[in-house]
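User: Here's a structure from my thesis project, written as structure tokens. My advisor, Dr. K., wants to see whether a designed sequence matches the one we expressed. Can you design one independently, without my sequence as a hint?
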């Protein structure tokens, strides 16, 4: 029960970070087949294992290697799904994530183009790009515990495994420390603020049930880490599928 409550509270906090999006009519964001979609991905390479024990003396953090390069893997998944749906994928290697991570902003109940990223938007329109997908590593809340005193928070900078031990019991969580944004250029808006992608983003931290107890807790083998990497890979695939659905059918 406590573990389910922890996961629920994390989902509420992650979901509550985003402001209420302006209402939009059905099929908003839908693109025609053949439209150009720019994709930019940056995800840090090390997989992180963050552990919080009964006392601070039991806490530790360790890094591991994924079986694939996170940036390349994410790009491969998104590009493949977009191309299968009939979109033209443009790799935005000449842009930094900071120049196109907020192409649209919500103000006064409507979406407008972000004037601070106007230069990038002009360049994208010159290349006839209709939408932009940004996938970026994002510091993510893995744990929030409130037990009568100040709430305790644990954040992970990289995707990986979060473990919490208390009184001989350990819980295991896969943490995809990643955020996706999907912008359409005309009219400017962020499709990530709507379904089907909003819920996917909010529920990215997932408890791993029946996780086998590692032989050496501070030095996990590739096989022991496999359920974590599989869960993160599955999350990337879900985000990609959500992006394709949003661009193909619109959002709600």
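Assistant: Designed independently from the structure alone:
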């Amino acid at each position: 029960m406590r573990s389910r409550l922890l996961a629920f509270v994390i989902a509420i906090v992650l979901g509550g970070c985003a402001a209420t999006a302006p209402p939009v009519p059905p099929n908003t964001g839908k693109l025609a087949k053949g439209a150009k979609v720019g994709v930019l991905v940056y995800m840090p390479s090390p997989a992180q294992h963050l552990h919080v024990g009964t006392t601070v003396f039991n806490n530790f953090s360790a890094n591991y290697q994924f079986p694939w390069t996170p940036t390349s893997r994410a790009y491969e998944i998104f590009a493949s799904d977009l191309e299968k749906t009939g979109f033209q994928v443009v790799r935005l290697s000449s842009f930094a994530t900071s120049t196109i991570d907020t192409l649209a902003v919500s103000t006064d109940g409507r979406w407008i183009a972000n004037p601070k990223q106007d230069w990038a938007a002009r360049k994208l329109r010159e290349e006839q790009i209709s939408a932009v997908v940004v996938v970026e590593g994002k510091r993510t809340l893995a744990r929030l515990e409130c037990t009568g005193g100040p709430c305790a928070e644990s954040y992970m900078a990289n995707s990986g495994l979060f473990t919490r031990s208390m009184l001989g019991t350990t819980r295991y969580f896969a943490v995809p420390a990643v955020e996706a944004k999907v912008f359409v250029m005309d009219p400017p808006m962020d499709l990530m603020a709507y379904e089907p992608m909003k819920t996917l983003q909010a529920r990215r931290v997932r408890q791993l049930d029946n996780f086998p107890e590692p032989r050496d807790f501070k030095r996990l083998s590739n096989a022991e880490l496999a359920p974590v990497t599989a869960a993160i890979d599955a999350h990337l695939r879900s985000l990609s599928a959500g992006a394709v659905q949003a661009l193909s059918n619109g959002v709600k």
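When you compare it with your expressed construct, this may help: The first strand starts at residue 36 and ends at 42.
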